[in-house]
Amino acid sequence: MKKYILILIILLSLMLLFKTRNDRILYSWSMDYIENSDYVKLDKIIKKLNINVIYQDFSSEYLNNIDNTFLNRFNKIKIYHLAGDPSWGLENGSKFIIEEINKVVFYNNNVTNKIKGIVLDIEPYASEKFENADFSVADFSIYIEQIEKSYYYAKENQLEFILVIPYWFDDVDKNLFEQLITYTDEISVMNYNINKTVKNISYEIEMCKKYNKKINTIYEINFDKEGYFLNFDDIKNDYSKIKTQYNKLNIAYHHYEAIKID
User: Out of 3.40.50.300, 3.20.20.70, 3.40.50.1370, 2.60.40.10, which CATH number does the structure's domain 22-258 have?
Assistant: First the structure.
């Protein structure tokens, strides 16, 4: 009897491990390999980094043409639409986000293999408005208003809603940042200071734990430049230090175009 109980415990543990396995995400801003149906490099990246999620910037033309070839070929990969502009985080910017969501909804309504959701890389602080001004608490509040409206619209249309954010957003206003977390399914953190990756994502992890949200830490690929990790092994070692903090913390590589692979 004890033997069977032990076997059951082992099986349950393995099931739990599989269920909570972390995502390995690849960012891609290029449509070239899709338009040319040239997947040699992508296949190699997927194999080398064990990628199971792609954030792909699909063109409006592609979504409108309802071409399902790419998603059919990579039907074992979870694929999201990557989009954004700084203006979308300013006043009335939600109308642009909703327009983008509608493109995905239209596409999904006409294909078998569907896009899982939308990933928004908005970065309102990068707009011309802030060339000579700080991104204030009031500006952060306006950004969150746009996100709130868009989040609920995405959920009404059965789409996951993911936000790309800088590691310092919580320093603008912690209460507003906590509010922001409730309007997303996952945050993707531009955790680019290689000397402070653990520290700079700790509060984000705390908030994601509180609201049971997923989070991923982005690694910028630029191995030949000072201030970046030297190789994939260094990245994986760093990630191993962070992921112990939360079982829903995933890893993201930015980006397809920057990765050099034999």
Answer: 3.20.20.70
